[in-house]
Amino acid sequence: MNYISIQDIDSLSKWVKSAIKIKKNPLKNKKLGKNKTLVMLFFNSSLRTRLSTQKAAINLGMNVMVMNFGSEGWTLEFEDGAVMNSGASEHIKEAAEVVSQYADIIAIRAFAGLVDKEKDYAETVISGFLKHATVPIVNMESAVRHPLQSLADAITMEEYKTKHKPKVVLSWAPHPRALPQAVANSFVEMMQMQKDMDFVITHPEGYELSPEITKDCKIEYDQSKAFENADFVYVKNWSNFNDYGKVTNSDPNWTVTAEKMALTNKGKFMHCLPVRRNVIVSDEVIDSENSIVIEQANNRTYSAQIVLQKILKKL
Amino acid sequence: MNYISIQDIDSLSKWVKSAIKIKKNPLKNKKLGKNKTLVMLFFNSSLRTRLSTQKAAINLGMNVMVMNFGSEGWTLEFEDGAVMNSGASEHIKEAAEVVSQYADIIAIRAFAGLVDKEKDYAETVISGFLKHATVPIVNMESAVRHPLQSLADAITMEEYKTKHKPKVVLSWAPHPRALPQAVANSFVEMMQMQKDMDFVITHPEGYELSPEITKDCKIEYDQSKAFENADFVYVKNWSNFNDYGKVTNSDPNWTVTAEKMALTNKGKFMHCLPVRRNVIVSDEVIDSENSIVIEQANNRTYSAQIVLQKILKKL
Amino acid sequence: MNYISIQDIDSLSKWVKSAIKIKKNPLKNKKLGKNKTLVMLFFNSSLRTRLSTQKAAINLGMNVMVMNFGSEGWTLEFEDGAVMNSGASEHIKEAAEVVSQYADIIAIRAFAGLVDKEKDYAETVISGFLKHATVPIVNMESAVRHPLQSLADAITMEEYKTKHKPKVVLSWAPHPRALPQAVANSFVEMMQMQKDMDFVITHPEGYELSPEITKDCKIEYDQSKAFENADFVYVKNWSNFNDYGKVTNSDPNWTVTAEKMALTNKGKFMHCLPVRRNVIVSDEVIDSENSIVIEQANNRTYSAQIVLQKILKKL
């Protein structure tokens, strides 16, 4: 069993319930991971993912080996048949198979390069590991997806929802640098698995996410209209998917402010963090009592823990 | 309970005695830290602090997660109300609160930038964590202080003192690069807590430490005079506090040599390490039997261990 | 007891047999390393060594502290009597003695610089630690040797040999960058300790390894001739030893291909990894059933584990 996409979850509602149980007693399954080793491979920066996934593994009694692949290891080649006479020192074939021998589970973080859309959306790195590794793989944010985050988001919404069918908005917001679409993509995929939620995506025209991901999700280009009566407002920047990896809009009118939140139904403010204050969201909103970003980050531990626990049980 | 400054110690003599007891049986409290997690965040290089603090936590049975914040995480913003549209990706508010959720204790190393005196002496980084974290904070060297080092120094002096009221000299020595004042500051603060020691600081004119730290400590500009009959000579370079962060003097006459040590009362040579041989101190002195720098470094483990132990007992 | 060279092994055949036993039950000696700490110091990149050595220590119940000395610590000075007023911040004398106080065993990786032959072949870094450390030292690849690799190679050959006296070839192959001679050197030294193996080294003229290492080993400049009837073909690039550290030959005719392997006695293909595909070896060969590179990497765990076990038993 791997955890590459939120769609690897058989029943989202059951996993969310289990995660909330784990949260109440995180050390209950401390024996489950005994003498099992999690290898965490980072190709990119990480704070929450690094610490929460490690913490989840520790809670399960696992050994953890952390490695910054870029700086501590070798540059990898992903193409079959490549003549490796320039940059890359090692092929994913060997790397994945070798690391599998030292690990019971491998977790990988490798962001989108935001240069070559096809390569990114082919999930070159994580697919390479998936293909050649001989142990389960956990996605700690790949080019296209961030399913540990989205599961934590689902847990958080379950904890904070106050009515049967809440309205959830995913809103784009401006950012000075080009960011991947991974968090937004996985949030959309997670929302598609929710049974009783009204979901709407709002972003400037031209900032559509991949239609293969959003499918028939409702898109509303008027942010204020989208916010009306929302119970949860999930805010995230992403760079342009069509004009791939470019920042073609940085309109400050999309910053989430108290005025906009006033349109909601005392909507909870969500963000995966790290967040640029007063660019993505005003201080007033993120510091308000309706901001649940810290709890989202807290739930990253239990999101990782339910995933590791499910995998460990099948080893 | 936090450990930000040596002044956070209620009774220096009692802590020193406890640390010396721990040193005799370091694994005695191995159960105290069970299922507790220390997160160590490094914004700067570290050898002794990195390994000794980790070792202390291991001796107490704690889990440890180590992170190089600069290279592995995100650039932090510390100013309230900042519009984060340039360098920094994450605000200390979120970072500190989030990490607190994965940690029982957070230890932080963040050196002085040596550019902006006010910012450094406001202890921007560690104060930011202190303000926003929800778990105890341990200072692994901040802009202004290095209290784990000074506690180790106090332990070492206790072990090596041969008379009731020893004379202790803190001597500046030359160094090619601009170094923070943190070690010297904390040593001064520690000496002010000692009851039975004669203390004198010696440095070139113009190299006065912050008067708010040295208070009424005796200053002697003639190094040789200061060394007379000294029982302990603690040597350390610091950059200029007045002409802030500058190297305005690199006079090799301040290097500690055997001739100068001959003026002392078979004085013990101390330094926090790393030390530049034949710049700060001659080989002859640091290699002599009166050099106790290796034992100082050894005591870093027990200094960290008594601090962690005190905090764990109050959790 | 230290493990600096394969020659530190008293009986290669006994160690190999013990390692194969460990492989069958890697957790059997989990109590041996209890409350013992391995400090792993990296001056260079590492994948297999980093993870397999750590895994071996975990299998033995040890605590592990990993440190990237270059980026996380201080630049070291190795010369006695140096006036340290430029680059280096700390002398090996202090560094080695200090780290010894936090460790029961220190493992070190420090590659050849490939600029100064004398300095490299004096094993400056690992010899410095060896001289000044007060605990056992394990070589995780030094300037001249990689004995954990060669022990893993010996284990792998023992597992795969099908006749009493197999023929083993060490073959040079081209590579775009200048690589150290360490792996080849240690392989040669290991082969000299084998009793019942026919050993031949093949490389272009001018690519002779140090004669102090190869001694009276057979050298065959015709690669095809060397491959005839070989049972094991160990392939590795190294930079020129005579024209020190230079790449004076990158002849693609030395790449190991299926045609060449056809000359062997269904010879097993070996390489320490990372390997540049279609430069060192064709895909066809490394992907064939006679390629045992993945198993070699697997045996790195048991090679490290027998070494750590032997040292722990003597502590």
UniProtKB/TrEMBL annotation, chains A, B, C:
Pathway(s) it belongs to: Amino-acid biosynthesis; L-arginine biosynthesis
Keyword Transferase set for record: yes
Gene3D superfamilies: Aspartate/ornithine carbamoyltransferase (3.40.50.1370)
Reaction(s) catalysed (UniProt annotation): N(2)-succinyl-L-ornithine + carbamoyl phosphate = N(2)-succinyl-L-citrulline + phosphate + H(+)
SUPFAM superfamilies in the cross-refs: Aspartate/ornithine carbamoyltransferase
Major enzyme class: transferase
Name under which the protein is recorded: N-succinylornithine carbamoyltransferase
Domain Aspartate/ornithine carbamoyltransferase Asp/Orn-binding, chain residue ranges per copy: 183-308
Xref: PANTHER family: ORNITHINE CARBAMOYLTRANSFERASE, MITOCHONDRIAL (PTHR45753), ORNITHINE TRANSCARBAMYLASE, MITOCHONDRIAL (PTHR45753:SF3)
Pfam families from the UniProt entry: OTCace (PF00185), OTCace_N (PF02729)
Binding positions for N(2)-succinyl-L-ornithine per the UniProt entry: E141, H175, K236, R276
List of residues binding carbamoyl phosphate: S46, L47, R48, T49, W74, R109, H146, P147, L148, Q149, C272, L273, R300
Protein's organism: Flavobacterium limi
Keywords: Amino-acid biosynthesis, Arginine biosynthesis, Transferase
EC number: 2.1.3.11
Family: Belongs to the aspartate/ornithine carbamoyltransferase superfamily. SOTCase family.
UniProt domain Aspartate/ornithine carbamoyltransferase carbamoyl-P binding: residue ranges: 4-159
Function: Catalyzes the transfer of the carbamoyl group from carbamoyl phosphate to the delta-amino group of N(2)-succinyl-L-ornithine to produce N(2)-succinyl-L-citrulline. Is essential for arginine biosynthesis.
Subunit annotation: Homotrimer.
Chain coiled-coil ranges: none
